[in-house]
Amino acid sequence: MPTPLDKALNSKKGVIVFGGIVTAVAAWSIWGQDMFPKEGDPTGDPEKWTREELRRWLAARNLHPNSKDTDAELLERVKANMRTPRA
């Protein structure tokens, strides 16, 4: 007389569910992490930064740069939010 465990092991449905779980765990371990880590903060003089560097710097500080802002506006916001080193 087959037990419920025997029935579960002989079922195609159980094998497919187990395979799906293994596939989901593998996909999560591969794509669930940072595949492409974020770039670091730009360094140096903000006057020489590109538009994308200015936007990235503002976005990293949750200052939400607008896509319609000009380079001058972005630069002004960066300078206004930069901390000056203490003497």
State Rg: 26 Å
| Helical amount | 55-70%
The total beta strand count reads 0
Structural class: mainly alpha
What is the overall pLDDT average? 85
How are helices and strands ordered from N to C?
Answer: HHHH
Largest sheet: none
Give me the number of helical elements. 4
Strand content: under 5%
Shape assignment: rod-shaped
Unreliable stretches, pLDDT < 50, 5 or more residues?
Answer: none
Give an account of the 3D structure.
By secondary structure, the protein is mostly helical. The protein has a domain at 37-86. 55% of the residues lie in helices and 0% in strands. The chain has four helices and no strands. It has helices at 4-10, 12-31, 51-60, 71-81. Helix 3 runs parallel beside helix 4 (71-81). The longest helix has 20 residues, at 12-31. It is rod-shaped, with a radius of gyration of 26 Å. It starts with a helix and ends in a 6-residue tail after the last helix. 7% of the residues are buried. The model has no long low-confidence stretch (mean pLDDT 85). Residues 68-79 have a biased composition (Basic and acidic residues). Keywords: Membrane, Transmembrane, Transmembrane helix. It comes from Hyaloscypha variabilis (strain UAMH 11265 / GT02V1 / F) (Meliniomyces variabilis). This is STE24 endopeptidase. The chain crosses the membrane at residues 14-31.
